[in-house]
Amino acid sequence: MTARKTTEKKRGQAPKKQVKKRGLKKRGQTPKKSAKTTGGKSRGGPPSGDKSGSFFYFPIFLLVMAGQLLVLGARTAEGRVLMYSNLWPLALWALSGAVLCLVLKGGRFSGSSVLVSGGLLLSGIGVLVRSRMSGVVPDVSDMNVLIQPLGVILLLLAWMMTRKGRVKILQPFWGLALLAAFALAGGMLLLGTRYRGGLYAPGGMTPTELLKLFVPVAAAGFFAKTISRWHGRPPWFPPFAQLMLLLVVWAGFCALLALQRDLGLVLLLSLILLVVLICATGRVSWGVGALGSAVAAGWGVVRVFAHGARRVEAWMDPFADPTGSGWQVLQGLSGLYAGGLAGTGLGSGRPDRLPIAGSDFVYAVYGEELGFLGSICLLFLFAHLFRAAILATRRQSDDFAHLFAAGITAAFVVQTLVNIAGVVTLLPITGITLPYISQGGSSYWVTSVWMGCLMGLSETNPSGSKRKARKD
Amino acid sequence: MPELPDATFTWLDPLLTDEAWPHLALILRVFLLLGFGFLLLRFSWRLRSERQGTLSGVWPRAMTGFFLLFLVAIAWRQAHWQLFGRRNENFVAFMQRYDRREFNPAHRVRPGRIVDRKGRILAGSRVTEQGLQRVYRYGPVFGHALGYNHPVYGLTGLEAAARSVLLGGGLRSREDLIAMGAELIDRERHAEGPTLMTSLDVDWQVSAYELLEGRRGAVVVLDVRNGDVLAMVSRPEFDPNRLHPRLFAGQVPDAPLLNRALSGQYPPGSVYKVLIAATALQDGFSGTLDTPPDGFTTSPANPRIRDHQYYTAEREGRVWRGHGAIGLGEALAKSSNVFFAQLGVRSDWDAHVRTADAAGLLHPISLWERPEATLTVKPARMPQLSNNAPYGIAQYSIGQGDLLVSPMHMAMVAAAVARGGQTVYPRLDGKMPVRTGGWICSAEHAETLKWMMFRVVREGTGRGIDLAEIPVAGKTGTAQTGAGRESHSWFMGFAPVSEPRWAFVVLVEQGGYGSQTALPIARDLLREGVREGWLKP
Asked: Which residues on neighbouring strands pair with residue B228, listed in sequence order?
């Protein structure tokens, strides 16, 4: 996968268009695409055209302002008075966004601006939805003002740590990340307190969110170290020792999480590992095989765990027990139906009718108020972010950076899809949150770190193309 | 957690007045959507320009494809609930019962009307303070034919089977698609489901209902040509507009909730001889059989099967001399048990089963068929016999023994003879395709049988229905129901004989002789039809 040649050779001789080749058909072949204008940016990196520096800050700000006005208007229509505290989240979001854009500009950000603007818009929507639920849905409050600024700080830190190939400094710590993941999972099992079927640390924190950062690092480190073993093998014959090591460690880890009854997290982390495996080996077939066996194993596990089985039953036929296991899903769907094509309008729905509206079912709240059209827009926004993240992954030439990017991308994509799919009954409910939109600090901050990493990774090291080809 | 200054503020109030706000809100919503779309467009362009430079990291396209496919699946699934949730009757029922969002249009969704074949409304919906109420225009007359839809007692009959269609579920035609599109835009206006046209006819139904007054029994009228159920009456009746808790309290005398036409199980008695005659004709029977006056039995151990004249004569102190050697036509006209018991034993048991199966007696038959629900005729109870049990076959051949059928079954038999031997399945939905079943006998034999049934009316037990207005063919039946209990009274037939259009069955529980109770009801029904003009000979 990494036997690369520089694009130098052909650079001079190709003013005509070349056939697009995306993805690697054959190992070692380098798809190239010459910049449209030869006088553009440096080789390798994305040529930042004249516009790529702009992040659409003001259009996004305007949009979110309009949304906030709608929320406030609906609040008055309900007879509630307007408080300055209702405005703080928006103000802090706008401020943090401005700081983010300015720092990125100052730091000569040359990566994907879609990641920046898309993330900005997504977090703006999150502010609106949370502001809409505050005071109506228990557990959601406007007053958690730390979320936005801390999120931006974490994002910028992650960005600086990963940009321009600097991500490689994380590589030696993969073993530590693995240990930390085990320690975290084990520690939660010992010290956590149970609430609504899940484990929480004192203060209602969910430190297991950190696993979503540790696991990509550990997985990328492991595969970067053993990558030569996985290559050059027939498709039916993975390396035995590595595979066994992986399976044993992973099974132990999953068991720790399963004991906490956090099956959603097991699913998410397993899929991250799967994507990293596929990207490391380049073999989709191994991934499919692993997925098949994982689904079979998951089926068995779900049968053992009572609350898992209940969720699967509620998913297969929510009408079997409409007032019990199907209640939550059906209330969410009722909200969606009540919203219809255009929605009730931001602020005019009834999220208080929906149990756990703030975290698991926030998409139902969004869909009720913004309607099917708004939901499609949100799905498109996610699709754009996914594509930008995938692009950042494909830009990597270093093994570790590439696999780390793949892990982060997978985490972001899977977390989003699994949450939304649970709401619309494509999958059972897993208790996974929707990035940037669900309430709760830990989830928000982890998403911020992901976005920061992806932004940093999307800036390719200008000297990346000069690096030596890996020998194997 | 740091505390930020907080206070109420009012400087937005001028914008939020009752007059200004609705307009402003609309503008803001449109702006929000358009702005979102605009930004997404810009993001797409930006992404295209960003896809440059060296892309060497492995990311299989299959994975991207899978994720995008998943997104599409999410959108599809969401549309299934959010836009087309109305098509799912369980979902609508859930929302009507448990969703407390008063603006949810599901609360105004109501089942559509049910009309008869001429468009006369049989059932409709009304919104009252208590919620939705189903109104049945003819009350108990169509009680069994339609069933009921009640918030407490649930749904039965056609109301239950057609529920999802009445709520606007399913996509069968282009009209449904258009309705669905209109529904997307204005859901309040399209809250009432589509109108359902049934094959029932108010004229037939009302008059059959009135003729059964004071009786326990059932009347079924079928259109011979296509199996349309024109009338399906069962009494004692219930009023679907006023369901009384007493109806549902355990054992209710006379079982008014039982739809006798479809689910009743009765010994058919002599009306079943028509099927036996069909089997015999198909087996090549012709000529005569002797009917000894003291009856017939297959072995001395079994009681003898005798003609009813034997018992009448015995009661009156006379001596019954028997019919002598008679042919099939005369035996049917005189309804000779002795003849048919012998005739049945001559045929193979498998031949009897084949005929019963061809007549549609052995399997549930749906009057209303949709993937989600059906309304069926309960299969007849066939005795478990073989050629080794000739006495059982002899009993079967006079419609007694363990054989139990529903009135609808016998209406199908009458229709099959009238149609030239082929069974037609009854249908309540005129849009359903005409479904034909097996042949009870060949067309040639059916023609013979038809005129034999005409002979029953002209000179046999059915003389009471020999009308001047319309030529009728038929068969009476008197089914014994056990010692000391009055027999069930049957009459089945079709009219007009030369070009049959209507097949009918009348059953009166414990009504005595078929010619004395059931036949007059059928006669009055036909007479009224001719007089009122909805039955044209």
From this structure: B427
| ipTM metric | 0.84
Contact A395 B54 (CB under 8 A): yes
Nearest by CB to A84, from B6, B44, B53: name it.
B6
What are the Cα distances from residue A76, in Å, to B12, B170, B378? 10, 41, 61
Overall domain count for chain B: 2
Phi, psi (deg, nearest 5) at residue A124: -65, -45
CB < 8 Å from B in window 198-217 of A: none
B14 touches chain A (CB under 8 A): no
The 8-class DSSP code of residue B266 comes to B
Same domain, B353 and B493: yes
| CATH code at position B160 | 3.90.1310.10
Q: Is B62 on the interface with A (CB under 8 A)?
A: yes
Residues 14-33 of A with CB under 8 A from B: 22-24, 30-33
- Expressed as residue numbers, the domain containing B165 is 88-94+109-183+193-197
CA distance B92 to B271: 47
Domain co-membership, B523 together with B409 = yes
CA A266 – CA B294 distance, rounded (Å): 86
What pLDDT tens digit does each residue of chain B (537 aa) get?
Answer: 456 667 777 777 777 777 888 899 999 999 999 999 999 999 999 888 887 777 788 888 888 999 999 999 999 999 999 988 887 878 888 888 888 888 888 888 888 899 999 999 999 988 777 777 899 999 999 999 999 988 888 888 898 888 878 887 666 667 777 777 777 777 776 678 888 899 999 999 999 999 999 999 999 999 999 999 999 999 999 999 988 888 888 787 888 899 999 999 999 999 999 999 999 999 999 889 998 888 888 888 888 998 888 888 888 888 888 888 999 999 999 999 999 999 999 999 999 999 999 999 999 998 887 766 778 898 999 999 988 889 999 999 999 988 999 999 999 999 999 999 999 999 998 888 899 999 999 999 999 999 999 999 999 999 999 888 899 999 999 998 877 788 999 999 998 998 999 999 999 999 988 889 999 999 999 999 888 887 776
**Between chains, do A367 and B78 touch, taking CB under 8 Å as contact?**
yes
Chain A residues touching residue B44 (CB < 8 angstroms)? 384
Contact A52 B49 (CB under 8 A): yes
The answer to whether B15 contacts chain A (CB < 8 Å) is yes
Q: Please say whether the beta carbons of B29 and A367 come within 8 A.
A: no
